[in-house]
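The data layer described in this paper is built around a simple, fixed record for each protein. Such a record has a labelled line for the sequence and another for the backbone structure tokens. For reference, a complete record is included directly beneath this paragraph.
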Amino acid sequence: MFYRKIYLPLMACAMAACSKSDKETSKDTDPADLNSISVSIEGEVNQKIEARGRDVEVALLKFTKTSLEGFGVGGFVAGAGGNTKTDASTGLMKLDLQAGMEQTGTATGSVTVQNGNSQTSYSGQFYFLYYETDINGSNSRTYLTLTEVRDTANLLKLKGHFRYNAAYGPDNQSDDCVKEGIANSGRMPMYNPDLCGAKKVKVSGVFTIYLDKVMQQ
């Protein structure tokens, strides 16, 4: 998963603030505890993620009056005993602060399934390699729509939904996989998913977050 190396460190410096209601919260309230997200994963992985507070991942590099840059949202759920964990993230993208318009960019989403010391990662980049039929990558990106953009005192409330495809591909492709891809150079997708051992998932989700307007530039 190519973007995740830069995505996870951003969780620690996410500029997010929120409220359980649209009223002012106590100055002692940690806004990071109050966001929510619901994610459905279907396909090779079938998982429902319902996360609140610290289990909601929000990344943000720049917050202006009209847009968010380096924005991403996701969530995770841990299995019984903490031996398993499923994490889904939209990837980082630029987002105009406009409701009702589906937005996209170069961002691709991901799903990571961890079971003990074993980890399987699905990404939009691998979806492009093994399943994409459009050379422009229209099926490999994250699509996000803000359904509400509203001022609530010193906070900006954002509600929205997103969707994306992601796929798993083996770290080391087999000789047969590579040879077949070379023999069909120029084809979309580039590689045969069945021959190469690829797997795919479809992800959709809804979220509500609050951003502190003091961070606007």
Summary: The two ends are 31 Å apart (CA to CA).
